[in-house]
Amino acid sequence: MRCRxxxxxxxxQQLAQADDDDLAQRARASLRADEQFRTDRxxxxxxxHEHKAARPASPALPGLKRTIADAQxxxxxxxxxxxxxxxxxxADPAVDEAYDGLGFTWNLYDKVYDRDSIDGKxxxxxxxxxxxxxxxxxxxxxxxxVFGDGDGVVFQRFTxxxxxxxxxxxxxxxxxxxxxxxxxQSGALNESISDVFGSLVKQYHLGQxxxxxxxxxxxxxLAPGVKGRALRDMHHPGTAYDDPRLxxxxxxxxxxxxxxxxxxxxxxxxxxxxxxxxxxxxxxxVGGNAWETIGPVWYAVxxxxxxxADCDFSTFAQLTVDAAAATHGEGSVEQAAVRDAWVMVGVxxxxxxxAAASGPAAGGVETPGAGHDVREAQGEVPGADTEVxxxxxxxxxxxxxxxPFTLGDLPDRDTKNWQHLxxxxxxxxxxxxxxxxxxxxxxSITCREADVDVTVAEPHLPEAIHxxxxxxLEG
Length: 475
What we know:
It is a single chain. By secondary structure, the chain is of the alpha+beta class. The protein folds into three domains: 1-176, Elastase, domain 1 (Roll), CATH 3.10.170.10; 179-378, Neutral Protease, domain 2 (Orthogonal Bundle); 387-474, no CATH class. The chain is built from 15 helices and 16 strands. It has helices at 9-15, 21-43, 46-53, 93-112, 162-176, 184-206, 264-267, 273-286, 295-303, 313-328, 333-344, 372-377, 412-423, 426-431, 463-474; strands at residues 4-5, 66-70, 80-84, 125-129, 138-140, 145-147, 216-217, 232-233, 242-243, 247-248, 348-349, 357-358, 387-393, 401-406, 442-447, 452-457. The longest helix is centred in the first third of the chain and has 23 residues, at 21-43. The protein is globular, with a radius of gyration of 24 Å.
């Protein structure tokens, strides 16, 4: 298995050009260390590496088995064992953070998904800390975790971030299940799945609901003074940082901005923002604890028989829609949330009378009888000349905003989203929900051609639909 690191190469390459000579030298050293490690992995006999990594753990016990070693700033693993399962904390925070983070990850997989460690067979969890000199990365090498201490200027020690540990260890789960190829869209899914479960590790450990979670990856890594919040923002890809040394977060949020590149194994750390956002939107639409609602859907696909190593976005999206039906029921809130989330990021095009179809944005091919154009011709989906009136009322000031518009006047993505929304029974179902609070906003949607005249309360709207309404009102 190839080395998976949390810091994408494009970030280190950016730092390698920094005006700060010391910082640039450390970044270049980290890049050289990464390349050397990959070279060693390619040339070293498998048996030799397995012998090195298979350090003795604590005496055989059922359940969690952790071993932490210290590389003492050398570019070698495993290093000297400094703490094993059941031993008390030591004076080194990196050792104790690694020990705890491995445990938090094990807890999620064991207690929530009934998985016996990352391989499903009780695999001991191994980690090396203090790898190299000011090494700016952390990675899963195929058998264990490896953590650098960071440069102290842009990045702090990599054991600080629980979601980073969950991210890296999930690469091992993926390797033992779907085996997603680390290239192009399957590689971006590989990265996204690690972000998904890395975030769930943190949420489960902190007891956070989807609404309470920050949906950030690596928020604890950035040093004071860095203009940014994290390495990645799952809810708002492309907004995690904008710093003179790091550059601007380049992740796309939807298929309209998909990055077609040969760098970074075909943009695996870039385009992962698209499925990341789909997962986040689905979780927020359903509410509650993400590890109990949408998390099981992603886990079922990852570990199920249908996913293939070269899986692309549209295939994965449809698998999650199907898994949501199997997990929560056909027509369930969870299934609708998953489907709508993939529509919002442009991977699926939802059509009346069908669960979802691969859309052009996802690289899919619409087959006769399932495509958007065919259904529109049959009158099941409103045409581009359909007129709609959208009005928002309420709030403490009692202000009203409204916009009459024709579907074809909207951006293509929003046109398709509105066509689906007007053809589906979603708005009518939401409108029947009771509850709310004083001064809440309400949205009224009137469309004679689609026979739609409903008013829905803002608190009942899935976030994806709420965002669509607000974009439309802003014009």
